[in-house]
Design a protein that fits this description.
single chain; 7 helices; alpha/beta; six-stranded mixed sheet; Lambda Exonuclease, Chain A; 6 strands; binds iron/sulfur cluster
Length: 208
């Protein structure tokens, strides 16, 4: 049995932009320059976590998942090993009330692209595998606009989502273990803003 492949939940969004880009970054280890938008995103996350920490009241996970009134936690780090994958994730916000458990990701987006949905389903998968004995309420995948806090997408996590996520995870595992070739994007606009566009053999935006 080969060593398990490490996959971060956020990589599903990156793979959806371009699988080849993820491959160059994670397997070929070509350094990725942090853009201004990435640095701004990290700063906003840190600030929200600091604000949350100041007002936080400690509780056990049992108390949290039983809560009938709204309980919230931030930056929840989880890990699960299965299918020869070590899946890692840090949930921006995890909330619970009498009706459900809410797995929330903050993004500067007003649309839940498929890659973002897979990322949030990865968190739901991690949650299920870490707390299956404690969760008796439906789990919802939620995308919030990071800048105004509005809910962009909210959907109950179902068996169909889990199936779709697992297929994506196995595909990514095979790409990262180099048993499957990564698929480059066919969208020249993505190549135009990709920091690998001069190094990538499939670039549709190479200057000669
Ligand atoms: S240049 Fe284009 S094909 Fe190559 S990694 Fe970047 S986005 Fe993908």
């Amino acid at each position: 049995m080969p060593n398990p492949i490490v996959i971060g939940a956020s990589w599903f969004q990156e793979a959806s932009f371009c699988e080849q880009k993820l491959y160059l970054s994670k397997v070929k280890k070509i350094p990725l320059i942090k853009t201004e938008a990435m640095q701004k995103g990290a700063l906003i996350h840190d600030t929200k976590f600091e604000e949350f920490s100041k007002a936080a009241v400690p509780a056990t996970w049992e108390e949290f998942f039983k809560s009938e009134t709204l309980a919230t936690s931030r930056e929840v780090e989880l890990q699960h090993t299965g299918n020869n994958v070590i899946l890692l994730g840090r949930i921006d916000e995890l909330a619970c009330d009498k009706d459900g458990v809410y797995v929330v990701d903050d993004k500067p987006n007003d649309y839940a692209y498929i890659g973002v949905r897979k990322q949030i389903w990865a968190y739901c998968h991690l949650l299920e595998n870490n707390f299956h004995e404690l969760i008796t309420k439906p789990v919802y995948a939620v995308l919030k606009n990071r800048d105004n806090g509005e809910i962009v997408w909210k959907e109950k996590y179902t068996g169909a989502h889990k199936e779709q996520f697992l297929l994506a995870m196995l595909r990514l595992r095979d790409v990262l273990s180099e048993s499957r070739k990564p698929e480059p994007t066919k969208n020249p606009n993505k190549c135009a803003k990709c920091s690998y566009n001069q190094a990538c053999e499939f670039s549709l935006a190479k200057s000669n």
